[in-house]
Amino acid sequence: AYGADEVQPDMPQGLSVADAAYHTVHGYPGGVTALAVRMGVSANTLSHKANPNNDTHHLRPDELVAIQALSGNYAVLHAMAHALGHVCTPAMPDQADGDPVEAFMLQQRAQGEYSAAVADALLTPQPTPNAVRRVAKMAQDLIAHTGHQVAVLRGRMRKAPGGAL
Fold it and tell me: Which of 67, 147, 156, 161 is deepest in the core (most CB within 10 A)?
């Protein structure tokens, strides 16, 4: 954690996929047993599968998805993305309903909110954790709105011969 009043981040830096799975399973409220019940599997088997030192039991992709969906902890997803040189961004629904002007205005508003959050954080010699969280949230929103804007424009493109975009 960054301070006494903050929760730990979903994925501490450098966490491997196996360690992320272990911590997600064992960090579930009620422990492995409670998560196993929700998944409809044996607690013993789930514990073995989540053990990074176990070479005989492995979590299947569908189990990893279920573990994250049930726990609300996406550390495994982030660890996988990190291992492959990518980052994950939460998706937000398109609010422009396919209107390109509306998509542009929403993206520009998100750009302004992101810029304001960064400017506020830079006004102090040492930004507070809340200021950094605000910047991160505004960055995620900006990325989502930019993706929606590109999707609206892509949807309005004239189809190339052969159907390729």
Answer: 67
Supply the pTM of this predicted model. Answer: 0.67
Separation between Cα atoms, residue 85 and residue 106, nearest integer Å: 29
CB within 8 A of 56, min separation 6: which ones?
A: 48
Contacts of 19 by beta carbon, 8 Å cutoff, 6+ apart: 52, 79
Other Cβ atoms closer than 10 A to 162: 5
- Name the strand (E) or helix (H) holding 155: helix 129-156
- Specify whether the CB–CB gap between 76 and 16 falls below 8 A: no
Eight-class DSSP state of 98: T
Of 99, 83, 79, 100, nearest in space to 19 by CA: 79
Q: How far apart are CA 125 and CA 59, in angstroms?
A: 45
Between CA 128 and CA 44 the distance in angstroms is 43
User: Token pair of 73, please?
Assistant: 């902890």
